[in-house]
Amino acid sequence: MFLNLIKKRRSVRSYLSKPVERKKIELCLEAARLAPSACNSQPWSFIVVTDENLKNQIAQKTYSKLIPMNKFTENAPVLVIIVKEASTLLATFAGIWKRRHYSLIDIGIAAEHFCLQAAELDLGTCMLGWFNERKIKNILKIPRHKRLALIITVGYPESEEIPPKKRKLIDDIRRYV
Ligand SMILES: Cc1cc2nc3c(=O)[nH]c(=O)nc-3n(C[C@H](O)[C@H](O)[C@H](O)COP(=O)(O)O)c2cc1C
Fold this sequence. Notes:
Layout: H1 2-8, H2 22-33, E1 44-49, H3 52-59, E2 78-84, H4 89-98, H5 102-120, E3 124-128, H6 133-140, E4 147-155, H7 170-173
Antiparallel strand pairs: 1-2, 2-4, 3-4
This protein binds flavin mononucleotide.
Flavin mononucleotide binds next to strand 3.
């Protein structure tokens, strides 16, 4: 049942040092590539960082002394950076007309496709929205005008335990009319 996969996916913040097979990363990227997007704009590209030195340099730009919550990225064997690419003209006009940030919605869906496929392959992931974008762009020589939307850590989880999900109650968020 698909819901079981959704329940299996959780944010993993402790990883084994075991490397992640490229074939598995490719499957996750394929899942992301097939995600829907407004006007089929596909406003994304993915940078897979596996080189340990580069990976550590980037990981160090996701936390600071003051806000150390993302220090765990240092033990993730792979980082996937989702770059927000230009939308198609149609999606851009639709977004302006309707005042909606379609590309961020699109990227969120693609990211979750990636993470669900990873979970199915027994990989752990954690999406990161907190990082020093400017410094990471410098490291990767990404032009200043581009935005980095999300980073996903990937690796084999240290523990197989799936903690209970802390979520709002369905009665508090659902309304049939
Ligand atoms: C857009 C986005 C940004 C996030 N940023 C971070 C982050 O910077 N650091 C982190 O440890 N977790 C981050 N998370 C993970 C959330 O904390 C996590 O999904 C949430 O607490 C629910 O837990 P679960 O993923 O284990 O079900 C982010 C999740 C999303 C969707």
